[in-house]
Amino acid sequence: MTSSAETGSGPRPKSVMLTFLGIHLLGRASAIYSGSVIDVFGRVGVSEEAVRSTLTRMAGSGLLTRHRHGRKVYFGLSERLATVLEDGRRRIWETGAVNRSEDGGWTLVGFSLPDTRRGDRHDLRRQLTWAGFGLLQNGLWVAPGVRDVAAIVEQLGLDGHVTVFTAHPAKPTEAAELVRKAFDTATIASRYHDFMDKWDGGKPAFPDDLTRRLMLHSDWLHVVRRDPHLPAGHLPRDWPAIEAETLFRKLDADFREGADRLAAETLELLPTAAQPAG
């Protein structure tokens, strides 16, 4: 797997930035000095230019708030970005990588869009995939459990073109057959195996616990966010998400104390009571 933490051209700045902000700013009334971000990202191979460009773009799109203190510029979370990061936190620590639900319910989404709205059709498919849906058949997408897709439909302005309902499979349809048809379980499993191959040694080549924890979380989020969270009862008994999640949690515990100590020493924070800069 080519992870979000490492690609042939190095780490992907925005993906790692979101992870970094989720670890160090989520839940805090603080903004972080851009120089601190540049320092940490430099240790994992992201250039100063790439960091500055990423921060500027995220501030320009309303994801970050900009604050000035003296000659220094700090960046804080917008409400919109805090919501996104909170979703990631829940996905890691509350939802988890293994779906042990026995409810058996599914959410189905059907849509029909004319060729004149081809771009909207592409965006809807992309958003449904991100939300854990798989294509069951032409124009019909399915995901396990009850999924709220109202925000996706509203954001794309497709209220009159999308039908959403929940259902349970009935004979001759079996839930395992839905999983087989709609989801590429071999690829999902391979991402977990690749995560374990990379991290099972405990300390890949990052310089300290601060950067190890950052990249561990970035890699893990990259895996679990592309996992539709299929019911474990319809997956192989040796499904690798269980072992991979155990490894992630162990390494996070191993790195946490050292990472927190280095963060306190190296990250310069500013209370967000300060006025945003223009």
TrEMBL record:
Residues 12-80 form the Transcriptional repressor PaaX-like N-terminal domain. InterPro entries: PaaX-like_central (IPR048846), PaaX-like_N (IPR012906), PaaX_C (IPR013225), PaaX_trns_reg (IPR011965), WH-like_DNA-bd_sf (IPR036388), WH_DNA-bd_sf (IPR036390). Pfam families: PaaX, PaaX_C, PaaX_M. Residues 210-263 form the Transcriptional repressor PaaX-like C-terminal domain. It comes from the Bacteria. Residues 101-179 form the Transcriptional repressor PaaX-like central Cas2-like domain. This is PaaX family transcriptional regulator C-terminal domain-containing protein.
